[in-house]
Amino acid sequence: MSISKTTIIIKVLSKFHLFGAISYLYAHNLLDCRIIILSDFHVPSNRFRVLKEDCKFINFPFEFYYIDKSFSLSDLGKFNNLIVMNAMSVPYNIIISLFRQNTFRRIKCVLFDEGMGTYCDKRYWYNYRRSVWKKSTIVFYIKDFFVMFLCKILRIICIDKIEKFTLFYLLGGALHKNKQVINAYNYFFENVYPVQNQILQKEYNILFISDCLNSYLKNQEDEIPIYNFLISKVREKYANATIYFKPHPSEINDGLERFKDLDCEVLNISLSAEDLFKTEEISLVVGLGTTSLMTSALFFNIKTICLMDYLPMEKVIDSKLKFILQYKKWISELEEICKIL
Description:
The chain has ten helices and 14 strands. Strand 7 and strand 8 form a beta hairpin. The strands form three sheets. It has a six-stranded parallel sheet with strand order 3-2-1-4-5-6. It has 341 residues and is of the alpha/beta class.
């Protein structure tokens, strides 16, 4: 079987997905394959938007397409040996499209890291799906049952192998580092991804990375007071540092007016957190449940601190409580990566 005949379809919703996929290609010497990058633009909640210009660092041949209403997988021709890559879960919409075309043999799926949500159990995601479902509970149960049943059938018929390419793995309920995958990401950031121009001007910079605190809270008006309380806790320990707040990509697209009363400088930039880390201008990263607390330490050797112990739990919605408790447990298990303030 010639690897030159292999086609790799990569579905991405964020630059972090893109970084994971390209790290995998280098680690497994797959640069000679036909590589197709699909940027998912039709999902209403996707506000990360991987653009073709975000791929300009890639120095091997690839095809790039936006998944929108006009996109059809059939336009890309027939596939022989096929690998489909996606974050965290099997991309069944792509599998169904390929199944309809009957243009493939059995597929290998590679699931790269989505972030810390990757490691939450099935029950957490089941309850999360229920929390975002706006219609009747009975309809949700029926729909969820049939969707899961269809996915199992497709997995049996269409998928030859599922490979996980994640930064951590769960063993005995505890989170452990996946050293082989971490090494692949490290190679990517050290040898492939370009150094960024200087962005910050101060000597000791602390980057506070948001992970959408308002999505945790019962009352949206509590967001800025809580952020300012967390910032004050950081300042108690690092009085001479300059604190920059990096909003989540969705918060940038929604507008930054609501952060005008934040007690630090707010960065109005579209760069990823990894772009900022790459400048080597960040001395410390702080945050709540953001994946960047892990990646900044693992890939860039930046000191990181979790502020989750200072989050007032009585103000948090029920559907987020389990994730917060789980995240705090993971941080305690991975203390060599991230400290708790």
